[in-house]
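Same chain as my last thread, 140 residues:
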Amino acid sequence: MAAAVARSGFRRMFSISAFAPPKPPVPRPQADPSPNLFVSGLSKRTTTEGLREAFAAFGEVVHARVVTDRVSGFSKGFGFVRYATVEDAAKGIEGMDGKFLDGWVIFAEYAKPRPPPQQAEMNSQPQQSWGPPSGSWGSQ
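reply #2:
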């Protein structure tokens, strides 16, 4: 190792060019247009009513919800807005994406649908993971 360092020097050994070039970022899949929006970057002070009022300027809001921490009750920094139409949702994204709400820059995009729950997970029973196998205590 010392001989290799002496021949090429520390600069060559630790130069960035000695490493593989960084991979290009993988683009995030875009959700299909729908009346449902995912809103991120919310302040801890943002309420459901505040979210509804901000997005109502761009169309008829059917439902709005800020996701909150169960213990503290504060916003977890994201929420959902459902418009009456896809056109209103597009206006909501155009009007609110990258804008300030409660002092924070927020991001609005079409919400991705939840994946369906897997049947195997719903039917599985928790397995006993402690103690000896059944019937081995006291059976001699």
